[in-house]
Amino acid sequence: MALSTLSEFYQKHSGKLLLLTLLSFPVLFVKAQTLPANNDIETWLPRDSEVRANYEDFKRDFGVEELIVVGIENTSKDDVLVEAVCERLERLDCVRKCWSPGRMQAIMTSFGVDDVEAETRLKGLTLSQDGRLVGLICLLSPEGYGDRAKTVDAVTGVLEYCQLRGDQVRLAGAPVIVTELDRLGSEEENQKFFFITLLVCWGLLSYTTRQWQLSLALLGLTIWAIQLTLAGIHVAGGEMNFILSALSVMVMIFTLAVSIHFMHYYTAAPDDDDPLRQALKTAWKPCCLATLTTTIGLVSLAVSDILPVNQFGYAAAWGSVVALITGLGLTPALMTIWPPQAQCEEQGAAISSRLGDWISTHSKVVSLVTVTMIMVTCVGLLSIETKIDPLDFLPKNSKVLTDAQRVEAQLTNIDSIEAVVEFRDNDLPFTERLEKVREIEAVIAGHPAVRHTISSASFFPSEMPQNPFTLGRLLKRAESQREHNEYIADGERLWRISARISTSEGLSQHEIFEQLQARAEGLPVRFTGIAPMLNHAQQEIFRGFHESFLMAFLIITGVMVVSLRSWKTAMVAMIPNLTPICIVYGILGWVGMPVDIGMMMSGSIALGIAVDGTFHFLVHYQSQFNRGISSAQASREALRQTGGPIFKAALISSIGMLALTLSSFAPTARFGLLMCSLLIAALVGDLVLLPALLCLRPSRLRQHKSAASELAGPHRLPTTPEPAVLADRVA
């Protein structure tokens, strides 16, 4: 009765409902486009951990760690130009200090270091070995750190004013790389590729439905769902980041899947007096169950201590609910205006029926081959590697990439590990502190992955003057410059050693960090820094993702057991749900391709897609099986009814995803290719493996064979005694 009323509502008010949707679009669009972006490096750090606390203490004592290295091609050895640029850069509000080779050498010589020794110390740090590349080190102020893009623009403006352009100047450093990644990953850059994706999806939808108006309207609903999702995130106080950039694609895929399934159920009831009511009756259960399980799985990501992953969990769960509301709530309104044609659906059902017959006949072979393939690829999961290197995200011809490579090759590495030496004895003389710092610095510099170290000791001579008057003047000079010293804090209690590290030795930053801690065991030093913190965060992200994925798997299995009322069927159904994960990520492990965070988040979307197709198949299978037919017959019938829309939804979305591979931004291109592979792999699980496994399920006749065997005949039935005999017995 309720569905009939709902059908009547759509028949009467579809136009008004769609008009209201259209009128709300500008409001949602503005809200979605003004969603603030935040790719701040610190947001990726664990919020409540000892390593984060140590880093916050370091920032409080020594200031922000980030810097920009300006490499000037000084072929004419024009020191005046270099110093002029340095002075102009230091005047910027976003720069708290700018070091040039000349300034560093002047301080060293003032402390008694001879010119030759000073230049030797600067070679490979702020001077290339041939002297042709000069490095200026710009330390960012809190204002510069707060707005990196503005800082990079300001630095670039100064360089252009000084007539330094193109290959005459090299910029490197985290602010430069993050700014470029923000530009490449911005909505403006990715919208053109997303538009191509929508155009491809519209073409495929038009081909399958033979109705371009209906296809265009369906894509319009998809875009509306994306804007509603992003607007909701904005209202809730969320922010856009690299991970959430995948959200629009996820909502598009989920919405299209629901809409295509509903359209199929509508055309599958041509003889029904009210096909809309019948479609609502058939679609609501599998769609709601699929959304429920997908939402639970995505919310499980929110347990992560990494803020962007936490936000992705909630945002993606909200997006899956929006996809259900749009697909199941607004698609019926389109059906009343542009009823879909049944011809294409009949062709799809015929193909699915032939596929079902073939799978039923060869179910054992199909199951064996498919499960074997999954098990083999699963082995690759053990070898899967994770890697987050921002330089890998840049196009090969990017000037930012070539600049960073030139600076690292000729000057020094951008990544650093910071060591803080703490002196608890307040009465310890300055010279003894200096020698202790030098001793610890030598231990750190002895690690093969450490290219350079710099501390306050780097500005003093290797051997301090023995003459007390000379030593006194030197210490007095050092005292006068304490306010400008970047390497001593809290009086003279804390001393900083900055170690520039290289991962070319085959060690990760986290491994270098741990090895340095082991080397310095027993010494009064602690290590911190943004580079090892990010590497630690990377490990936490993937560890948390594995835990949340396992939690989602168990929860989804529980929901399937309750909804299907059969734990055996639920366990069988979960095997195909893992098929895309095992096949695609297993192959990545086999070929040794590292997985970044965006690629790992694609696994959540893949699980949602697989669960969606599985529920549509199983609801029809269970309905047929409960009528008393064999499992093989129920599997064939379910495949005939659902194979077409499952295949169409995956095919349209996967081909559309290929448009993202045209992007020069590596994460976007990888995401598009990976999603296409996952969608195709999900078809193997839903349309091949699941029907084959269910065909092997014992039929009800075989299940009750033992009970029936007890009734095997022939049996002699009792006869009624003759009347005379009966009378004698009574007597």
Automatic annotation (TrEMBL):
Pfam families named in the record: MMPL
InterPro entries on file: MMPL_dom (IPR004869), Mycobact_MmpL (IPR050545)
Transmembrane segments: 193-209, 216-236, 242-262, 283-303, 315-338, 365-384, 548-564, 571-591, 597-619, 646-665, 671-696
Keyword Membrane among record annotations: yes
GO cellular component: plasma membrane
Region (Disordered), start-end ranges: 707-731
Keywords: Cell membrane, Membrane, Transmembrane, Transmembrane helix
Record localization: Cell membrane
Topology relative to the membrane: Multi-pass membrane protein
Keyword Cytoplasm: no
Membrane transport protein MMPL domain segment(s): 119-338, 517-697
Name of the protein in its database record: MMPL family protein
Organism from which the protein derives: Symmachiella macrocystis
